[in-house]
Every structure is written in structure tokens, then in C-alpha cells.
Amino acid sequence: MTLKVVQWATGGVGVAAIKGVLDHPDLELVGCWVHSEAKNGRDVGDLIGGEPLGVIATNNIEDILRLEADAVIYAPLLPNPDEVAALLRSGKNVVTPVGWVYPSEKQAAPLREAAREGDVTLHGTGIAPGGISEKFPLLFSVMSTGVTFVRAEEFSDLRTYEAPDVLRHVMGFGEVPEKALSGPMQKLLDGGFIQAVKMLTDQIGFSGSPKADPDIRTRQEIAVATAPIDSPLGPIQPGQVAGRKFHWEALVGDEVVVRVTVNWLMGEENLDPPWDFGPEGQRYEMEVRGNPDFSVVIKGFQGEVGEAGPEPGVVATAAHCVNSVHAVCAAEPGIATYLDLPLFSAKAAPQLR
Question: Which candidate, 153, 201, 219, 320, has a CA 20 to 30 Å from the CA of 248?
Fold first, then answer.
């Protein structure tokens, strides 16, 4: 059955999601919300650099709410719960990479009510959080027993991230350390990554039961440039932030049982401390300690400096959203996490089906 899909926002993830919907045999793009007046009224095909599609973008939420559609892929830079609630009440399932991977009851209650009013479902997904940081460690953990520790970690070169305003004003690169450490990034990341850690602790059973939460602590570290470093926001000067690490750890007593870490560097040269990615380079890693201990390394989601085309991790984030749509539309009304959905997969390329 073909499902009708609306794309909300056309940043990197949004454009990749549109292309994913167009490539999916069981999805049809029927609408698109855009933030700017410059994109309002334009054919979506033009917005993604392709042929006209006959789908016209709008920056009026009422146009989207009135539209007959099965699902919205909601991918703004920052989530707005009021927008999501309105979409749900209008009878549209929502798949999003910007929140609600494993919300607390307080976070979930208003949106669960809106979803039930609309007889639809909200699902949070993505890559990290939303995949590498909780879904896939849980999947791989079935190969071990007596688990004592789970780790998920990202190692990424941010010189491939062509969003200078976000890098500086949100992520704190190119700033003095004090400004970066007090900036918005930790709080923005906490929302998703704390949910990821809680999903792991609840499902594996650290601290005895899902109702007895382990302590969760957050930490961040800074590296500064020791010489000018070329970056998407221009040269980063000595003393300015050129590397960031964020850690989320669950503890049972004094023992760390889950650690999720993000390593973001502007390359591996001229950093203090002298951080690097190690011999394996950019990657995602997952580790489970139990019987047996094992680790998994995933490469291919991070682009190399100078490569053309969109960042692979951005495309992967969009793909996870697109491939979720059918399972989410078939789920019970409310909020569905990975724990509530069946196994689903990608679809074959058009020339192979």
C-alpha cells in the first residue's frame, strides 16, 4: 500500500528524506513545509536540484494540516512540540530525527494525548541518538549474557560539516573555551542522549528494574587550536575551540555501566590536548562487556574532507526516517519507540525490483 508523505523542512536531512521518499516504492511525496519565504511556493523538485515534481512547498502550517497525508517526516533544526502536537491531531503520523526516541512520561504525555486524538503515532529515530547509541547496541547485546557494560561512541571530523553558523553559534567551534562550555550544545544534546542511555539501562536491567533509574552524569571536554586550522567557518585561531567531547554515563553505585560519547574534532592536527581518531579513523563504535565481550565498528557514515555530495550520516539519518514510515503508520496510536516496532528494512534500488 502506498502511503502519502509530507516532508517538514528542507535542510540536509530534509532534502535527503525527500530523495528517499521518491526512491521508495511504497511512498508518495504529497507536501512539503519550508521555513523561509524564499522557498515558499517553489516546486520541491527545484528545491532538491531535480526535475519538477508538481509538489509545491509552503511555509503555512495550516496548508500542511489540511493536507490529506498519512505521515510527516519532521526534520527541523530544533523540535517544536506544539507543531508536532498539531500534526498529530490532524491525523498524521510523525517520524522525526529530532526527539522522542525514548521520552519520559512527563515528556511523552502531551504528545501521546495528541496522537491518540488523531489516531496516529509519533516515532523518534535517527542515527545518534536514534540508532547507534541505543537501538543497535541493544540488538547486538543478544549475543552476550551477564552484561556489565555497554558503550556507544562517535568519532567524526567536523570539517565536513558545511554549516558554519551552526558550528560556531550552536556547537561552539571557533569560540573561546568558556563560551563554548557555557553554550547551548550540552543542553541540546542531553535531551536525546539521556533518553538513549535510559533505553539501554531499562532494557538491559541495570539497577534491577526499569523503575529504579541508575544515576546519569554528563561531562564535556574541550580541545583548542595550537595553530590556525582551516574549517567550514574559516580559520580557527590558536586558543579557540577546535575539538569537543561529550559523555553521558549511567552508574550503578560507583560503577559505570553505560557510556555514550561523541568525539567531534576539526581534524587531528594542532590540537591541545592532542586528540586524534586512532588508527581506525572516523567511525562509530559499539562495545558490550559480558560473556563474551565484543565490539562492533561501523564505517561509512562519515565523509572525508574534500569529498563532494551530502554527508553520508545525514543521508543515513534521513533513510532511517523514510524506512520507518510503514511500521509507524501500522503501530498502535500514541508514541512508539524501537521497542514497539517490528523489524523493518530498506527497499531495493528501482532498477533491481
Answer: 320
